[in-house]
Amino acid sequence: MIALAGRTVLLTGASGGIGAALCDALVGTGARVVAVGRNETRLQQLARRHDAGRVVPLVADLADDDGLAHVVSTVSRFERTPSVLVLAHAQSAFGMFEDQAMTELRALVDTNLLAPMALIHGLMPMLKQHPQAAVVAVGSTFGSLAFPGFSAYSATKFGLRGLMEGLSREYADGGLRFQYLSPRATRTAFNTPAVTAMNREMKVTEDAPGDVAEQLVAAIASGRQRLQLGWPEKLFARLNGALPGLVDRTLKSQLAIVRRHARAA
Questions:
Q1: What is the pLDDT of residue 251?
Q2: What is the pTM of this model?
C-alpha cells in the first residue's frame, strides 16, 4: 500500500482523456499533481478545476530531448519532489502496417517506448531518494494481446510492458516499485472515428474515462504490479499467453471488419 495524500505525482499525458480524469482522481486522494502535456490550454483548464497549487501545469513534448530535460530539471527543483511517476501519454496508430509511413512508426516508438525509458532513467536518482516510490505505466490490452490494425501500436505497448516487468524485477528488493496497468477501450478522443466505428460494429465495450481513472488510482494505491481492466479483455489477454492459436482463429474471423475500417481511416 502507498498513501497518495501529501505526495507529489508526476503525470504525463495529462491533457488527454484518461490523463485528465487521472489528474482529477489523483487530486481527490490528496496528492499534488504535476500535469505534463503538450496542450497548454487544456493543462491550464485542468489546473483551474482544482484549488490553487494542487495541479501544476508543465508543458513539454516528451518525444523531444529538450522536453524531457525540461521536465526532469523542473521537478528536481521542487521542495517536495515527485515520489510517483504515472506514464499516461501515448500516440495511437490505427491502420494496416503496410499503409503506415516510416516517419509515423518512428514517432510511435519515440513517444510510446523511448520517451518512457528516458523519463524513468532521468528521474531514477530522484525517485530512489524516497523511502517509497512508484513508477506506473498506463498500458493497453494491446500490450498483452496484439490486434490487427494496431500491430505497430501493440509492439510499443508490449515493449512498455516488458520494460516495467524487467524493472520491477531489478528493484524487487527495495522501496521503488513498477506497475503496468491496462485499460481496455475508453471513450476519449484518443479513438479516431474509424476506431469508434469498428468498436461499435465489433461490439467492443468502451469505458468512461472517469471510471477507468478511479480503478487505476485504486491500483496505484494498493500496489498492484499488473492489472487488466474489463471483461472479456482480461480473459483474452490470458488466453493469448496460454493458447495464442485460439485467439488467432477468433481474430481471423474478424479480419475483414478490421481491414475495412483501417483502410477507411
A1: 87
A2: 0.94
